């Protein structure tokens, strides 16, 4: 693993390697493949943060799938703003279909709540959440997170799609804010 890095005014320390991430992504894709059964699922990718996770997940998902995108903004710096803004809504027809939301991280659940409300308006037959990272200490809702890659402490992370003020998304490893 590499050494500490600086992004803007913060120092981040290595936390989860790219190989560990890819192993977990393949595991999640296998679990969802089993869950989807014979149906062709629809994956809703939550942008921007989930693009790397979704790319690797979909490459490991060994059957046909429909892919759509949704974009919600809820962070400024290292903290959730508590308010969300919809920048891109779903365009696929979801009624009666098996739908899986691909999230990079679920922490407070504020963004997820908005995403679920938007997707549920399209009346999917089944709606499940797949999150690579989950912070149970920070989560404040009752929506079940159906498939979780890593349960992590309530500390800020960057890399593999996750950013700090738009930087760090391109890092292949996960870094944690140094305290």
């Amino acid at each position: 693993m590499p050494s500490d890095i600086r992004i803007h005014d913060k120092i981040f320390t290595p936390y989860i390697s790219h190989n560990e991430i890819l192993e977990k992504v393949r595991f999640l894709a296998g679990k969802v493949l089993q869950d989807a059964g014979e149906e062709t699922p629809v994956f809703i990718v939550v942008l921007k943060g989930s693009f790397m996770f979704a790319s690797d997940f979909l490459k490991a998902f060994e059957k046909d799938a429909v892919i759509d995108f949704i974009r919600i903004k809820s962070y400024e710096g290292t903290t959730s703003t508590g308010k969300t803004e919809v920048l891109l809504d779903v365009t696929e027809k979801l009624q009666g279909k098996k739908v899986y939301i691909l999230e990079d991280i679920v922490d407070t659940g504020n963004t997820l709540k908005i995403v679920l409300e938007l997707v549920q308006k399209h009346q999917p037959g089944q709606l499940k959440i797949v999150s690579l990272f989950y912070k149970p200490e920070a989560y404040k809702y009752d929506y079940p997170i159906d498939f979780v890659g890593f349960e992590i402490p309530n500390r800020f992370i960057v890399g593999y799609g996750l950013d700090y003020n738009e930087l760090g998304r391109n890092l292949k490893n996960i870094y944690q804010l140094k305290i």
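The chain has one domain: 18-152. Residues 18-36 form the longest helix (19 residues).
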